[in-house]
Design goal:
It is a single chain. This protein is an alpha/beta fold and about 350 residues long. It folds into two domains: about 5-80, K homology (KH) domain (GMP Synthetase, Chain A, domain 3, 2-Layer Sandwich), CATH 3.30.300; about 100-205 and about 220-290, HUPs (Rossmann fold), CATH 3.40.50. Helix content is about 55%, strand content about 15%. The chain is built from 16 helices and nine strands. The chain has helices spanning about 5-15, 45-50, 55-65, 75-95, 100-120, 125-130, 135-140, 155-165, 185-195, 210-215, 220-240, 270-275, 280-285, 300-305, 310-325, 330-344; strands at about 25-30, 35-40, 70-75, 145-150, 170-175, 200-205, 245-250, 260, 265-270. The strands form two sheets. The chain has a six-stranded mixed sheet with strand order 6-5-4-7-9-8, sandwiched between helices. A hairpin with a 2-residue loop joins β8 (about 260) and β9. α1 (about 5-15) crosses α3 (about 55-65). The longest helix is centred in the first third of the chain and has 22 residues, at about 75-95. The radius of gyration is 21 Å and the shape is globular.
Length: about 350
Amino acid sequence: MKKEEILTAISRIREDIGHEDIQPDIIDIIFNDEKSELLIITSDRPEKSLVIGKGGWVVGKLKEDLKINKIHVESYLDLYIRKNRMELALHRLEEVIDNYDILTAKPLLNLWKLLKKRIEFPYNIEDILEENQDKEQLVSNNNTKAIVALSGGVDSSFALIIAYIMGFNPLAVTVNPGDIILPKYFRERVENLTESLGVDHQYLEVDMSSVIEGALEGRYHPCGRCSKVIEKTVLEYAQKKGVPFIIFGDLLATGSQSLTYKGDLLRINLPAMLAATKGETKALSSNYGVSPTGRYGCPLLVEVIKKYNHMNRYSVQRVLRETRAGLLEPGEALDMVMSLFRNK
């Protein structure tokens, strides 16, 4: 498969569907014959948009014409930013590894190897895991080294899956404030994932009635306060268990801030450390049976937004933060924002 052939096909498709015939600047194409997947790397985001087309029509027709399973489109600029963030995280990881003995540091060394490989090929983390992991080598029989905060969403599920593969022997914990924040379908996802991985799991019961009451009265948006209670609860539990590492599924903050100390505990924002996109967390999690819910937020947030329209702006701001960071595609962000308004 040659770049010239792809450019000719894109030009023809754009003309056929009534788009202006502007040729995108494609830097490289990489075809995975085994998976029948094509990666197209453009010089910048506007060039990427030309390849994708309005509503994804161009790339969709291209996939049909080429008779392949999937097409990924990345801009070189986005890849450069992600690589830079991972290099910052790698430098920070190299600093913290020296704080631990060999056995404790083993999963961190595995992460170091994964990060090095991903910096070299920052396209699709699933491919790197498949090509380079030897699960029997990575998963050790030592004691639990990490507590992983597991909510049942795709980001925290991604974090648990990577932690398991890297040999942290994780204990997954789920803070349970009740059905209005952690509904049954989320608990089922948590239990199914931990069972399929063979990972121990623990619910941490917590009283969040004051947060729920204040949010339903319209005094504040619930997400910030809820997150603080969850983090505090998980941190205290991890300290009690005496583990060296605590892992969260945050997509932000990236770079060196993805590894920070909370007292003696090393907090690892695993997706942020790997500069994972939302698309990647969805894809890997879905391979283990965890699919997106199709709506933004928990039942409490839905009720708050129904009662107080102005609260939507704070949720939209959270979506925009991840979009500005390049973790969400504009189309994904639009779907999330639209789901917020559907909640009303």
